[in-house]
Design a protein that fits this description.
The protein is globular and about 100 Å long. By secondary structure, it is of the alpha+beta class. The protein starts with a helix and ends with a helix. A seven-stranded antiparallel sheet has the order 1-2-3-7-6-5-4, sandwiched between helices. Helix content is about 25%, strand content about 15%. Strand 5 and strand 6 form a beta hairpin. The chain has six helices and seven strands.
C-alpha cells in the first residue's frame, strides 16, 4: 500500500504556485518541476490575460522615458496655427476699420461714378452790418443787400482757373466789360442804356475755366430797389421763352427744360435758357436771377456741349448766397 501511494504521487503533475505581485504570470513561464506532465493531451500554450489595471512604471516591463516626440511636434503645430489665426484676425479687424473710415469712392470696387457736380467750397454768407436786415426779411421792403456785394459772388470750385478779365478794379467790374458778354453792338448799346436808365450802382463778377473746358461767368448787378430788378428781369432783359438780347455764341436759345423750376430759394425768380441745336463750336447755358435789389446773370459755355449738372449746381449755390 505504501509503494502504490508513492507511485501515484510521483506521477501527479505539480501545480505551479499562483503568481505574486512581484512576479506577474507570463505565458512562457516554465513549470516549477523538471518533470514533464504525464497526461496524453498536447500541451496548449495560453497567452496571459492582461490585468484589469495596466501596470505603471517599472512593473509594466517597459522602461520609463521622456514623452513621445510626435506629441511635441503636434503641440508646436497647434501653437503656430493659433498664433497665425490671431495675427490674421488682427489684420482683418484693422482692414475692416480702415474701410469704414474711408469714403465710398476711395474703396476699390465700391466707388460711385460722379454725376458731374463740381467740388465747390462751403457756402458762407458774409456778415451784415449791425442791425441790418436780410434782403427778404419783412422789414426790408426794398429787398436791399446790405452785405458787400463782392463777397456775394460764388467762389470758384476746386480745379478752376480764374478768368482774369472779370477781376475788375478792386473787385468792381466796369459796365463795358459786362456789356461785352452780348453778341452784337446794337444789343450792347441797348442793354447799356437800360442799365443807366434804371440806376445801376455797381457790378461784381467772377469767372473761371474748368479742366474740361467749361467757361463760367457770374455777374451781380446792384440796383436801388427790388421793383427795378423785377422789371428788368421780367420785361426788359428777358421773357419766358428766351432772353431779349443774345449773349456771345448763343444765337438761338430756348427755355432750359433740364433745369428745375426752383433756384433753391423761394424768393428768387430764375429764368434759365440753353442754346438749341445746331449750335456752333460751343453750347451756351445762361440764367437770370432776380434777388431783391440784385440782378444776377450766370453764363456757362463749353465746346461740344455745356453740361446741365454743373450749370444747375452753380445757379443753385449762387441763389443761396443771394438769399
Amino acid at each position: 500500500m505504501t509503494e502504490q501511494t508513492t507511485s501515484v504521487e510521483e506521477q501527479a503533475p505539480v501545480v505551479p504556485a499562483p503568481p505574486t505581485a512581484d512576479a506577474p504570470p507570463t505565458a512562457d513561464a516554465p513549470p516549477t518541476t523538471d518533470e514533464p506532465p504525464t497526461t496524453d493531451e498536447p500541451l496548449v500554450e495560453r497567452a496571459a490575460e492582461p490585468p484589469l489595471h495596466p501596470p505603471v512604471g517599472p512593473a509594466a516591463g517597459v522602461a520609463a522615458g521622456p514623452p513621445v516626440k510626435k506629441d511635441r511636434r503636434v503641440l508646436r503645430a497647434v501653437l503656430r496655427w493659433t498664433a497665425a489665426a490671431v495675427v490674421f484676425a488682427a489684420v482683418g479687424t484693422s482692414a475692416a476699420y480702415g474701410i469704414t473710415r474711408m469714403e465710398r469712392t476711395d474703396v476699390p470696387g465700391l466707388a460711385t461714378e460722379s454725376d458731374g457736380r463740381w467740388d465747390y467750397p462751403e457756402i458762407t454768407r458774409p456778415p451784415l452790418p449791425t442791425g441790418s436786415p436780410r434782403p427778404f426779411d419783412d422789414a426790408n421792403k426794398a429787398g436791399t443787400h446790405y452785405a458787400d456785394l463782392r463777397r456775394l459772388v460764388l467762389s470758384a470750385p476746386k480745379g478752376a482757373k480764374a478768368d482774369a478779365a472779370l477781376s475788375g478794379e478792386d473787385g468792381w467790374l466796369a459796365p463795358k466789360t459786362f456789356l461785352a458778354e452780348y453778341a452784337s453792338k446794337d444789343d450792347r448799346d441797348a442793354v447799356g442804356q437800360l442799365l443807366t436808365d434804371n440806376g445801376l450802382r455797381n457790378i461784381a463778377a467772377r469767372g473761371w475755366r474748368m479742366p474740361d473746358g467749361t467757361h463760367t461767368r457770374i455777374y451781380l448787378l446792384h440796383f436801388g430797389t427790388a421793383s427795378v430788378v423785377d422789371d428788368l428781369n421780367g420785361v426788359e432783359l428777358t421773357s419766358y421763352g428766351a432772353p431779349q438780347y443774345a449773349v456771345r455764341g448763343a444765337a438761338t436759345v430756348s427755355r432750359d427744360v433740364e433745369s428745375p423750376d426752383h433756384a433753391g430759394v423761394d424768393e428768387i425768380t430764375r429764368l434759365s435758357y440753353a442754346e438749341t441745336k445746331p449750335y456752333g463750336a460751343e453750347q451756351v447755358r445762361e440764367a437770370y436771377l432776380a434777388a431783391g435789389d440784385t440782378l444776377a446773370l450766370i453764363v456757362q459755355s463749353r465746346k461740344g456741349g455745356a453740361k446741365a449738372v454743373p450749370f444747375q449746381q452753380t445757379v443753385a449755390l449762387q441763389s443761396q448766397l443771394l438769399g
